[in-house]
Amino acid sequence: MQNNKRLRILVEGAIFAGLAMALEYVPHDVGVSSIQLCYGLIPLSVYSVRRGVVPGVFAGLIFGLLDMWLRGSGSLLNPLQIILDYPLAFALIGLMGITGTSVKKNILAKRPVQAGLLTVGGFALGNFAKYLSHYFAGVFFWGSYAPKGQSAWIYSLVINGGSFVANLVMGLIVMMILVRITPQVFTRNL
């Protein structure tokens, strides 16, 4: 029975990672091309809250590898940059599940505001960890693209910071709506 449950969790993670990857093909540039929404964060955050940090990290890792293989061919500089921008960055999304147990308890106790705030907190943590990985990849590997006279640190902050803020706002709004409208998506075990 325990092996059956683990298999269900792994299959569910693969499905959520696949859904996240499918959402990456929806146009996601906002304004200037350096600000990109990552719609895949939403299903990965739902999965991370449902199943916890470790399964969430696994699903994020799968998503990162899929994104690298299917869409990242033009942005692969060297092995360390690849690790920072793809597997590590997306695996860190799984940290969103750190509040999962508390979210479920609050949903079951009919406290949607607390559940929403915890979900938002988990989303912010996972999104920030992902951003940090991209930020350091930007500093050390993409900094050579900075305008003349601008430090790589500032360049990466500007380029990656816009995406971080845009994804944070999107995620906070969507996660609060999901907790309010469909709380069972976080608590129902398949």
Automatic annotation (TrEMBL):
Gene3D superfamilies linked to this entry: 1.10.1760.20
UniProt-listed InterPro entries: Thia_Transptr_ThiT (IPR012651)
Alphabetized Pfam families for the sequence: Thia_YuaJ (PF09515)
Coiled-coil ranges from the UniProt annotation: none
Record flagged with keyword Transferase: no
Keywords, in A-Z order: Membrane, Transmembrane, Transmembrane helix
Transmembrane segments: 52-70, 82-103, 115-133, 153-179
Protein name, entry field: Energy-coupled thiamine transporter ThiT
Source organism of the structure: Lapidilactobacillus mulanensis
